[in-house]
Amino acid sequence: MRNLNFAAVLALAMFTGPAFSQDATPASAAGANIPIQEVIVTATKRQENLEDVPLSVSVTSQETLERAQIRDLIDLQSVVPSLKVSQYNAIGQTDFIIRGFGNGSGNDGIESSVGVFVDGVYRSRSSSALDDLPEVDHIEVLRGPQSTLFGKNVSAGAINIVTAKPQFTFGTSDELTVGNYHDAVGRVSVTGPLSDTVAFRLSGNIDSREGYLTNTTTGDDVNNRHRYSMRGDLLWNASDTVSLRVIGDYNDIRETCCGVVSLLNGPATQFIGAPAPYGLGKPVSDPATKFDNDIVFNTDPTNHIIGKGLSAQLDWNVDFATLTSITAYRNEANRSIQDVDFTGADLANKDQPDSFGTFTQEIRLASGGDGRLNWLIGGFYEEETLHTGVDTRYGTDIRAYADGLSGPSSAIPGQSNLYTLEYLQSLVTPSIVPGATYFQPGQGISDFYRMYTRSYSIFGQLDYKLTERLTLTGGLAYLDDHKRAVSDVVLDDPFSSLNLLDVPQLPYLGIPANAFAPLAPLQFFYGNTANHAPVNFPNASESGILNGSKATPTAKLAYDFGPVNAYLNFSKGWKAGAYNLSSDSRPPDANGVGRTAGPESVTLYEAGLKGRFSGGYLNLAIFYQSIDGFQVNDYTGTGYALVNAGKESVRGAELDALFRPINWLSLTGSATYLDPRYDSFLDAPCVSYDTVRCPVNPSTGLMPNFRDLSGTHPAGIPTWSASASATFSHNFGTGLGSYLRAEYDWQSKVQLSETTPPNVSTFGQEGLNASVGLTSVRQHLEFMLWARNLTDYRTILAAFPTVAQTGSYSGFPNEPRTYGATIRLRF
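Predicted structure:
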């Protein structure tokens, strides 16, 4: 089956390209090519034909979103193979990746390298872009750095969501969807005039579904959906030259997410599952049944996100140009409570709240007319205040777990080495109580941070037609970023605070001070720092301030050959430095890794062809893209190791196309080839499975901090990815029409994470989606049956080291087959 599916992708790859308009076209003779409607995009901050834009852009229409049951940006990747979206153990922990580049998940101090914009408003955190999509006109995915025209954090690319505007004719759109797992979605949208100059659009959405995973410990379902949102949109055409659009939105997400399965159970996890007296006798996940839709948590993971925003866009057409101003404020509160050990034992749980408020202002002036010279100048400003943190506490089973991992004592029969250490210490220090000092319920660590960000950019771009066919484009942006952060970290785990190389009580008893150094792996927090404790900042040597600025140029040359447009693109991108706001945050003089990361600087060289022919189009891009100082944010099991890779680069090619050979058949899809490598990465975090580059020091029980990954293939970036679709349409001639759509998405196998061994974390992806529908005249009424992942293909989307269980690894499974029926009514 897999070989047949792959062959289908190759057969359709020459007709690939997910972005096009499928408006109804007049019937024509069988075999005649059908004209394709132009696709208008705003990728260059002005409306242009997609085929004329000298950029690699993928556009997904509203019709494709509806017929493919794409509800949010996670679903969007099934039709845009250069885009990868991965969700981790909480709703807000999501990565957006374009051409293999992207970061920012799970660590609020690190902003994404892929910017998300909704009606021109920047969404600064990935969690603020994860609600169900509103009523969309189209979605643009811009590949490669976009720092010249987009205000911030687009060093890898941008996702530009353009919603449907209010209309001056009354209309409604109602939708009801039901499916398996008790899926129920309701959407309502109303638009119309309030006067001759004012129009409105009001919309609401409810999305509810039971989870497709079952927590066998609690009996509850996990990975469910409970979302609702409201949106109001007001358009005022004050005159022929002035318009104002004001948008307010509110969304609420309350979901039990996200389920984790075991990929490999090491000795620590095996001890949890072993029956007493050999272990804790608690249930653990079985790697052999990771796709049975069962998980093992002692408590259910909960998430609650509330987001709200208000924006106003003013457009003023003067004689020579158009002035645009976009002002916005967004506020979001997010809280997740997780069982972080992912077993049936009560070892540790975390409470992770965060909130932020973001103000943005963009203003730009763009020339009008169709002359030889076109220009655009503008500026962008952002202020954000962030509060974030994690409170991690030990549970009731932690002491028995630590005793078991410490090994049996040779000095005190029937006791553990951990108990022996406490006993020896108690002989000198009475406050230390054997069996009751270390690893007690309620102990742990409280990680809390505040960060203020102020950013601005000034940008401009000039297009000059050297001839009627040859256009030269030049652009320049100056970006400036200021961050001020404060940490408030309190370590309440006395064992992690202990220096096992110099236990002060032992020399008084004639015992070597480092006799218990082998217990170092039990120091889950700050065990590899000299002071065995957090160092809060600002302090005498750390100001808590990061400042950075950069000028990013772009130059493009485009030639119109008639049926084919060719272009050359040179662009620079930049993303500011970042703070590590997690338990692995370390000052520079501790071990040189973890506190901050320097900026990312991106360079792109791209050549492309955009060909339009009767019945379709074909776009090809070949590129070389490199990032100096790529901000690597690897999860280590207790926190995030934030470091800069010296240089990461990728050579690749992308193909987008559409072909409609006859009036009842449309073929679409896309394909991406990537050849990435770490050109230089000397300071990659060490991992326990890489015993060659990370040998354990027998005297300390610790690994080195770093390993050299220079010359290796970065994890998580598939070499090949592709999607393809075929849509068959038929008009019955009685006012009824029908369609059948099939869509296939595939990517080659790749090691998912650099902190997990390749033999347990190498997976590919594939999915077959389909829909069949009936429509009335002019599509006032539509009934559709749909299915996603029709073949029930199972894979792992992301992998990581299991928390506090050295040698064990866990992962996030993909969704199983979902299916249902949708009815839409439009007037």
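Summary: DSSP finds seven helices and 41 strands in the chain.
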